[in-house]
Design goal:
The complex is a heterodimer of chains A (about 200) and B (about 700). Chain A has about 200 residues and is α+β, with helices and mostly antiparallel strands. Chain A is about 20% helix and about 25% strand. Chain A has one domain: 2-Layer Sandwich (Alpha-Beta Plaits). The two termini of chain A are about 35 Å apart. Chain B folds into three domains: about 200 residues, Rossmann fold; about 210 residues, Dimethylsulfoxide Reductase, domain 2 (3-Layer(aba) Sandwich), CATH 3.40.228; about 120 residues, Barwin-like endoglucanases (Beta Barrel), CATH 2.40.40.20. Chain B has 30 helices and 25 strands. In chain B, the strands form six sheets. A seven-stranded mixed β-sheet of chain B has the order 5-4-15-14-13-6-7, covered by helices on one side. Chain B has a six-stranded mixed barrel with strand order 20-24-21-23-22-25. The chains are: A alpha+beta (about 200), B alpha/beta (about 700).
């Protein structure tokens, strides 16, 4: 059992509904994004093609972040999700440096202080490193991560890489991963070219 | 051990889900499920079973939780307690607020006539457009207007009505289209509901053509992107029509049977050769020809448009030209083409009956500000609510001519930022004797008010979703989920104020109003709620082909006799923007870039939501879209702050370098406040012929690095 997210690049229009859903659910502070969409442009006007490229924690099979964590705060669940035990995180940021995908963020406690009521402020203590937990609460309940369920364009898919439609999708549509030549083995797959 | 996600929702996740319709962007109204946990809203998700939206949602709808519980929400009525704009407020009761407003408005009515009171609305925060107009008519003032008004929907509605007697470019039958032409619109950012259907069709193989000066979200998915010079769209449309006629790609049988004026059109279009059109529009000739062929050869094809059609130098001609493009290719009122969505609520009760149009005395109708100069906006076709012209109102406030305006009642709008020439708008708002604003937050407009009324968000309202742009004929429910402070819906505010004013023909309560809407169906709102709150509808495609179009000739009028009778050109023609490299070469020498204002992102609706954390985080700054070549020549790097200047004013923005824009053009975002307010750049001194729209596409500007 290994969970995976599959992104169909040709379906993503960069609307950021996923980003907003993530930020609202996880109450991430200012400038911290557990997922985001970057724009990649190729070519020159007028023959330019733009690709919207969603990024998040890759939940690697061989996570570099886990290797460098001095306290064991970063750990991996049996079903392949990389999590952080915030009580044990020292905020040393080794993992931020180690993450090949730059998907870990230090919570310095900055927030939109006048704009967020107390009860909607993030409960994660400041001074720790945080990142996408693949909505572990939802996954444990048999649901998809919220970004996947939110995408209005069905660009995101979630499932067991060994045993589900995801498996066929990865194979049939020639899915690829970022930094494939390294041995991190990310759980986030992309379908389609960066045009 | 703290496992993050579980902690976030504070427990097991929502325990109760309420089906309702989001209204954060006014018109679209995606069906959503609102999750409640411990009495609090903790989740908003798309309702995948909604017959209209089928799972569409946008960042603004999702983040409405942060609007609902925002610490800066206006929670009770407030009266000014210091100088105008001093930011000093005193809490008052609803009774005091409504009595004070009613007394003042009735005094003004007695002393200066009802026309001295302007009713100005902005967005449709709930479905209350018609209630607002009924209120104005019942009060007796002809001077109701809206920030959109001549800038949104009215021009494109009138031009389509003139051509084929209804609105067909708004809601095409996208799912069956073989080719979709998106013109001056970016649905992924602004119209989630349409965007989802559009992308589904595209993913199923439909061809996609996008006309936009900037490579927008939707343009990035296009087979052909036509980067038109801002404001020159009419020439592009006439160029496509010409190619299609010349190459025999039009639907001759359809034209013969359903259209009039083809020969005249053919003659007019022949003036717009590909070479000439390419020169005007800056669209490469080969792309223009490819696009015309792709659209004409892939049948059924549909066109979908938006506010660009209301914000250029001659909106009526653009709406007409593109309506004609759809018509001569036989794509109107057919499956997979441009069809006429029927509107549930508005089908039930005639608009003009609803707004009590007859109750406004003829002498008041004649006094409507701007109606003499812009009769297409205010007088001729009574299909759109005849409205006063905003720039003319501002002028009347500042000059007292043709008669004084003493009070403004603003609901759902923020004209201090949202209409052209902010400097003039703010001056007028500051100088009007009595200003009342209903809003959720203290906007730049509310700052200047005498009385602020706390309006509610869509999560705090019962309602019926019955506007043309949201329904496709389906009737759906909005359900109140919770309440905030003493905030009330705009409809409640109008009903209670009408009581205090002693206005005839209003309702006793919101429930009365909702029951009135449903009365033709013989059910009450509570019965509608208990039956699930949805009445589905299938549009009758082909009805006009069978029974005739709703025009004087019963045909599609390529040549418009009505326009001719009114003194306008009966055939579309191109007009160069008021300010452009060609129309004002002297200004062009000083201001060498063409500008399009009004660029939108998915996180903000007009001037709103800059204070919503999740949304502001995604788009923290106002960005100027500029080509790297141009930026380089100005020594500007990506992310640097720049000053954009026009002959009218300047703004400060952050440069976003992109190849997705012509080096001769820059894209200015809309809706930001203070020094990033795009309407410091825009002009309202010259307005479109007959319809009065200000030009927001295609002015001139110059850009420089801020530090220099």
């Amino acid at each position: 059992m290994k969970h995976a997210v599959v992104v169909e690049l040709n379906k993503c229009v960069g609307c950021n509904a996923c980003t907003a859903a993530c930020k609202v659910k996880n109450r991430t502070p200012k400038d911290i994004f557990w997922r985001r969409i970057v724009e990649i442009e190729r070519g020159e006007f007028p023959d330019v093609k733009k690709t919207y490229f969603p990024l998040m924690c890759m939940h690697c099979e061989n996570p570099e972040c886990l290797k460098v964590c001095p306290t064991g705060a970063t750990y991996k669940t049996a079903d392949g999700i990389v999590l952080i035990d915030y009580d044990n995180c020292l905020g040393c940021k080794y993992c931020i440096v180690a993450c090949p995908y730059m998907e870990r963020f230090f919570n310095s406690g900055d927030d939109w202080s006048d704009w967020v009521p107390e009860e909607l402020k993030q409960p994660i203590p400041k001074g720790v490193v945080e990142k996408c937990d693949l909505c572990y609460d939802r996954v444990q309940n048999g649901e998809n991560p919220l970004c996947v369920d939110t995408c209005p364009y069905d660009a995101l898919h979630f499932g067991d890489v060994d045993d589900s439609s995801i498996k066929h999708m990865i194979k049939d549509k020639k899915a690829w991963t970022l930094k494939e030549d390294d041995n991190y083995k990310p759980s986030v797959y992309y379908i389609g070219e960066i045009e | 051990m703290m496992v993050h996600g579980t902690l976030q929702s504070g427990g097991e996740g929502p325990t109760k889900w309420v089906k309702t319709c989001c209204s954060i962007c006014g018109h679209n109204q995606c069906g959503v499920l609102v999750g409640i946990e411990g009495g609090k809203v903790t989740r908003i998700i798309a309702d995948k079973d909604d017959p209209m939206s089928e799972g569409s949602i946008c960042p603004k709808g999702i983040a409405s939780i942060q609007i609902l519980y925002h610490p800066q929400r206006i929670k009770y009525p407030m009266a000014r307690d210091g100088e105008r704009g001093s930011g000093k407020w005193r809490r008052i009761s609803w009774e005091e607020a409504l009595s004070t407003i009613a007394k003042k408005l009735n005094d003004i009515k007695t002393e200066s006539g009802p026309e001295a009171v302007v009713m100005a609305r902005g967005t449709n925060r709930g479905s209350w457009i018609r209630v607002f107009n009924r209120f104005a008519n019942a009060f007796g003032t002809p001077n109701w207007t809206e920030s959109g008004g001549a800038q949104c929907f009215t021009p494109r509605s009138i031009s389509q009505n003139l051509t084929f007697g209804g609105i067909a470019l708004e809601w095409p039958d996208l799912s069956k289209s073989s080719c979709i032409l998106v013109w001056g619109a970016n649905p992924p950012a602004t119209w989630a509901l349409k965007s989802k259907k559009l992308m589904s069709a595209r993913n199923a193989g439909a061809k996609l053509i996008v006309v936009d000066p900037v490579q927008s979200n939707i343009a990035s998915k296009a087979d052909i992107w036509l980067p038109v010079r801002p404001g020159t769209d009419v020439a592009l449309a006439l160029g496509m029509i010409n190619i299609i006629i010349n190459e025999g790609l039009y639907d001759q049988a359809y034209v013969n049977k359903y259209c009039i004026g083809f020969d005249e059109l053919k003659k007019r279009a022949s003036e717009y050769t590909p070479e000439k059109v390419s020169e005007i529009t800056w669209v490469p000739k080969d792309k223009l020809i490819q696009a015309a062929r792709m659209y004409a050869k892939n049948s059924p094809a549909s066109i979908t448009i938006s506010a660009t059609f209301d914000e250029i130098v001659d909106p009526i001609q653009l709406g007409r030209a593109v309506s004609i493009l759809a018509s001569i290719t036989g794509n109107v009122d057919i499956a997979g083409g441009n069809i006429f969505p029927e509107t549930a609520g508005q089908v039930f009760i005639d608009n003009n009956d609803f707004i009590l149009i007859e109750s406004l005395p003829a002498e008041m109708d004649r006094k409507r500000l701007g109606a003499d100069e812009y009769p297409i906006l205010s007088r001729y076709l009574k299909i759109n609510f005849p409205m006063a012209h905003y720039p003319t109102i501002l002028n009347a406030i500042l000059t007292g001519k043709p008669y004084p305006i003493r009070a403004m009642f603003i609901m759902g709008g923020n004209p201090a930022l949202s209409i052209a020439n902010s400097e003039m708008a703010v001056k007028a708002l500051k100088s009007v004797e009595f200003l009342v604003v209903a809003d959720l937050f203290i906007s730049k407009t509310a700052e200047l008010a005498d009385i602020i009324l706390p309006a509610s968000s869509w999560l705090e309202q019962d309602g019926l979703v019955d506007t043309a742009q949201a329904t496709y004929g389906h009737l759906r429910i909005r359900q109140k989920v919770t309440s905030v402070g003493e905030a009330h819906s705009d409809i409640w505010i109008m009903i209670e104020l009408a009581k205090k004013l002693g206005l005839p023909n209003f309702w006793n309560s919101e429930e009365d109003y909702l029951n009135y809407i449903l009365s033709p169906l013989g059910i009450t709102f509570e019965q509608f709620r208990s039956k699930g709150g949805i009445i589905k509808h299938n549009p009758d495609i082909g009805k006009r082909l069978r029974e005739g179009f709703n025009t004087p000739s019963k045909k599609i009028e390529l040549y418009s006799r009505r326009l001719k009778e009114w003194g306008y050109d009966p055939l579309p023609f191109y007009t160069e923007p008021f300010e452009s490299p060609y129309s004002t070469p002297d200004i062009y020498r000083e201001y060498p870039l063409v500008m399009t204002t009004g660029r939108r992102v998915s996180t903000f609706f007009h001037t709103g939501q800059r204070n919503i954390p999740a949304l502001r985080d995604i788009n923290p700054e106002p960005l100027l879209e500029i080509n790297p070549k141009t930026a380089s020549s100005l020594n500007i790097s990506d992310g640097e702050m720049v000053k954009v200047e026009t002959p009218r004013g300047s703004v400060i923005l952050k440069a976003k370098l992109t190849q997705g824009i012509d080096p001769r053009v820059v894209g200015v975002p809309h809706g930001w406040a203070d020094e990033a307010n795009d309407n410091l750049l825009t002009d309202n001194s010259k307005c479109a012929l007959g319809i009065g729209s200000t030009s927001l596409r295609g002015g001139l500007c110059r850009v420089r690095k801020l530090s220099n």
